Amino acid sequence: MPQAAVNGIKIHYKVEGRGEPLVMIGGFDSPLQTWGRQTPVFKQHFKLITFDARGTGRSSKSADSYSIAVMVEDVANLLDLLGIEKAHILGVSLGGLVAQDIAIQYPQRVEKLILGATFSHISENSGPTPDMYRAAKLPLYQMLDGMAGLMLNRNCYRSLLLPVAYIKNRLAQRAAILGKCEAAYHYDSRLNLPGVRAPTLILTGTADRVILPSSSEILRGLISGSKLVMVEGGSHMFFIEKKEAFNRAVLDFLSVRS
């Protein structure tokens, strides 16, 4: 897979399939392989662009640049390099914050917007759950392990994926972790979301233990004409555990019929 020199770093990315471009932006420290239950399906219908965000996977680590604005520019620069003027933008969790700001800062580049398990701001009814706040108070690597334990609800997935997550946590760069936490903590798009004109789908799992499901209801109220789909029993990584429901909702929204 190639690497692109963009915005002062190297981004590890992958392009698959043909059709309208669809950019998928992963969560906190999720490499592009996290989309393994989406790429075989989506690449049949779209030119699919996945990538490791800065500080994640095989992309460059940066000493101090992990703001949402910087990560938006990473995506915009990658699209420039690939010669893509306009694309569907899908982001989950922290990637959903980046996706929102792409729609705000570059409205002409967004065909349709899909936001999964994310939030517009942090308050009593929006943002992290109480379980997530408790994990955040732990020492760094205990915090990461605690977060990983909250991501999935079904034991069959937890037994397969959590050991990998725990190992990956020990390899994560401290500056990247803390920088992304800081970016999420201060994020607030409430004033700008009413100006978003791209057709928008908002997705969440009803059993998300990381981000309050009510965050998605608030997003729906802020983005005019947006559609909300709540996947019953879905965890934070409901695109893995409830992949059929997630994939079908995305394809239906993008007007793809099986």
Q: What is the secondary structure topology, with strand pairs?
A:
Elements: E1 3-6, E2 9-16, E3 20-25, H1 39-42, E4 46-51, H2 68-82, E5 87-92, H3 94-105, E6 110-116, H4 130-136, H5 140-151, H6 155-171, H7 174-185, E7 200-205, H8 214-222, E8 227-231, H9 238-241, H10 243-253
Parallel strand pairs: 3-4, 3-5, 5-6, 6-7, 7-8
Antiparallel strand pairs: 1-2, 2-4
Helix pairs in contact: 2-3, 4-5, 5-6
Task: Characterize the structure shown.
- This protein is α/β, with parallel strands linked by helices and 258 residues long.
- It has a single domain, classed as Rossmann fold (3-Layer(aba) Sandwich), CATH 3.40.50.
- Helices cover 40% and strands 19% of the residues.
- Strands 1-2-4-3-5-6-7-8 form an eight-stranded mixed sheet, with helices on both faces.
- A hairpin with a 2-residue loop joins β1 (3-6) and β2 (9-16).
- The mean pLDDT is 91.
Would you tell me which CATH topology applies? Answer: Rossmann fold
Unreliable parts:
none
Number of domains: 1
Please report the number of helical segments. Answer: 10
Q: What top-tier CATH class fits best?
A: Alpha Beta
Order of helices and strands: EEEHEHEHEHHHHEHEHH
What is the end-to-end distance? 29 Å
Global shape: globular
Helix content: 25-40%
The CATH architecture category equals: 3-Layer(aba) Sandwich
Structural class: alpha/beta
The overall pLDDT average reads 91
Number of strands: 8
Strand content: 15-25%
CATH superfamily: Alpha/Beta hydrolase fold, catalytic domain
Task: Compute the CA-based radius of gyration.
Answer: 17 Å
Largest sheet: 8 strands, mixed
